[in-house]
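Folding Task

Wanted — backbone structure
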Amino acid sequence: MTDYLHLGAAALPALAALLARPGTTRVAVLADTNTARLCYPALQPHLPAGHRLIEIPAGEEYKTLATCELVWNELTEHGFDRHSVLVCLGGGVVTDLGGFCAALYKRGLRCVLVPTTLLAQVDAAVGGKTGVDYHGLKNHLGVFQLPEAVCIDTRFLSTLDPRELRAGYAEVVKHWLIADAEAFQTGRREGMFVEDWMPTVAASVAVKQRIVQEDPTERGPRKLLNFGHTVGHALESYLLLQGRSILHGEAVAAGLVCEAWLSVQKGLLAPEALDQIETFLFSVFEKVQFIGLETDAIAELARQDKKNQGDTINCTLLRGIGQGVYDQPVTVAELAASLRYYHRLPA
């Protein structure tokens, strides 16, 4: 299962070799307006002549079925068949949406992901989850479908502004908190900005891959990867529906604090560990702004969380730093209380 991953300087040559295999009929590159400008020129030398560029608008608000229709129309009008390849060049929106489009087009178009953001490299592009948002609900429609390859080159991270890079770091911290206590302690001492991202990316990918291999379709341990996301997705969905700016990783960082606090309330996590988590996260991330009166409305959106079973909201919590525990039932009232706790913390 891991042989579909290519990391480092060999990643793009591996892509070129894959696209040159006999039997490949056509190649399209799916990029958003940012990656078409900033990343496509570096990818172009590794692509075959005659490939097609499909450009979509950048931003979470375009991660919709309407954008999928644009992609499917392009593929259909230009005669792409199931032996063609869709190369998805971008962050989590592009890799999630592109993978979803490929999985449904003619019941399965060959697909390769080239993630260009930290968030996509350590999380979104790894593990075979695809999806789009629906009526403001995060990844409400999607399928599990492994791509033919994921080619991760950290040189693309130089195209990111600090806010985007920071947002991806939330998923790195999440991996530490659920599975690698030693890396968390090292990371909070050394801080976020490093000269070479490859060791951090490779270690984070290894954590996710280890969990995904055990549980490819999220029936059990893969739910660990949703730590911070029950609150995070609800917060992100709410603010985006209100037309307010937030990145996925920023919402997840807030969710990590809220769900660590819930872990203390459930008697799973020591208060001292919560203090370490809070102190570190607020040293990296600005506080997400919302008003106290909005907490109930935000928490209500968790009723749509994909981990739920019937009327039970299932959350991933911490039994300690580096030790996640999944399928922990929580109520809407408890989620609202965690948001009130976060709201009252000093900025």
User: Anything to note?
Assistant: The chain has a mean pLDDT of 96. The beta strands are 5-7, 27-32, 52-56, 85-90, 110-115, 132-134, 137-141, 149-152, 313-320, 323-330. Residues 162-179 form the longest helix (18 residues).
